[in-house]
From TrEMBL:
InterPro entries: DUF4031 (IPR025109). The lineage of its organism: Bacteria, Bacillati, Actinomycetota, Actinomycetes, Kitasatosporales. This is DUF4031 domain-containing protein. Residues 4-77 form the DUF4031 domain. It comes from Streptomyces exfoliatus (Streptomyces hydrogenans). It comes from the Bacteria.
Length: 89
């Protein structure tokens, strides 16, 4: 099981955010997110938004730290990328 997280560099709602993804399945992603206490509402199409104050929890739980471009590449290569322009099926 490998999950990936990028640095908390994405601003929103007065906080900085990271993206948490799996390169295996959404089931793996949901299970990991639940294990670190990420609420289901934090899931957005193909990733979880993780606030900067929870970043260390994700890494301690086993998420691998990668840059944003690497995270996107792994998500796309796994066939799990769901851009807003493509309907979720």
């Amino acid at each position: 099981m490998t999950l990936y997280i990028d640095p908390p560099t994405w601003p929103g709602h007065g906080r900085m955010w990271s993206h948490l993804v799996s390169d295996v399945s959404f089931e793996e992603l949901h299970a990991f997110a639940a294990s670190i206490g990420a609420p289901p509402r934090a899931f957005e199409r193909d990733h979880y938004d993780i606030p900067s104050d929870r970043y260390a929890d994700a890494v301690a739980g086993g998420a691998v730290e990668v840059g944003s471009k690497e995270l996107l590449r792994r998500l796309t290569d796994a066939g799990l990328r769901r851009p807003k322009s493509r309907p979720v099926s």
